Amino acid sequence: MARGISRRGLLVGAGLAAAGAAWGALRVPDAHGETQRCTERYAGYRDRDRRQPFAKYMADHTRPAPAHVLRAHAGPPTPAVDIPPFERLTDDLAPTGLSKVETGYGQRRDGVTWAATRIDMPGVTADMWDWWFGWHSIDSARYKLWHPDAHRYASLAKDLTKADISDRAKYVGNTTFVDEYVGPKLQQLAINFRDPVAHGFRVPDGHTVVFGRVGSSIAPVDLGWLAHQVRPTARGVEMRSRFHLNLRGLHTPDVGQAACAVARGAAVDPRDLELGIDLGRDLMLHCGQEMNHLAGFLPRLHAEFS
């Protein structure tokens, strides 16, 4: 993980990527050099979406976050001294036990913006979440099931949904490109999912950990990390999510995806590279909303389409 990349270097790289993507939007090559058609971004569902076989799971609005998330959102930030460093993430999300703060937001003295949530999910299993992460990102309508108010667009670097591999293998090593609102700000993100075991997480049977590097889908810039730990409870599972932002790096951009991201109507704003405490607060609420919303029907969705 690169902490030492200068802000000036990041802005230069972002500007070059945006310029290259805007030029590339005229041709929109995919990863294989072939022409691809960019799909548009829009709110809600259209008639063609409602003809999908999973349309009965579409809602006009997202369920509210649980009460403890709403209280944390209305309250003050977590003191910096109580926010664990990213280097301790695998201990923070250990297979057993709880951390000092399970739901909160804040910023460490080293500038890392942090958010955390813990959501109880009766009737849900870890296998359902592995299936979901391998299934939903090929179609914006599927992605919107998760948070119909905030989600706008999704695609995958490689569509492996029909491959004869495990559900986890369909997203680990893959990259999802999403447009979503976090609070009032539209984000265009590229999330590259990594093998949690290779990064030191302990994942017993009946558990899963979704671990990803969060970057821009336009600029070749990584912005931070996310982790969602799912572990069994007496009633189902609980999900413990962590976000550590402002841990920057660089990645090789997907020129076709960057071109389409620009074509959808948003360009790189260099100010987005500084992720402040307000974003952490909004991200905590967003996570609490989407995880609570989807958990309400994920068992039925999984039973029908897995």
Condensed summary:
The protein is an alpha+beta fold and 306 residues long.
Fill in the keyword field for this structure.
eight-stranded antiparallel beta sheet; alpha+beta; 27% helix; single chain; disordered N terminus; 8 strands; 306 residues; globular
Walkthrough of the structure:
- It is a single chain.
- The chain has 306 residues and is α+β, with helices and mostly antiparallel strands.
- It has helices at residues 7-24, 67-74, 89-92, 126-135, 140-146, 255-263, 277-295, 298-305, and strands at residues 104-107, 113-122, 151-156, 175-182, 185-194, 208-216, 221-232, 236-250.
- Strands 1-2-8-7-6-5-4-3 form an eight-stranded antiparallel sheet.
- Helix 1 packs across helix 6.
- The longest helix is centred in the last third of the chain and has 19 residues, at 277-295.
- The protein is globular, with a radius of gyration of 19 Å.
- Mean pLDDT is 89; it is low at 1-27 and 29-33.
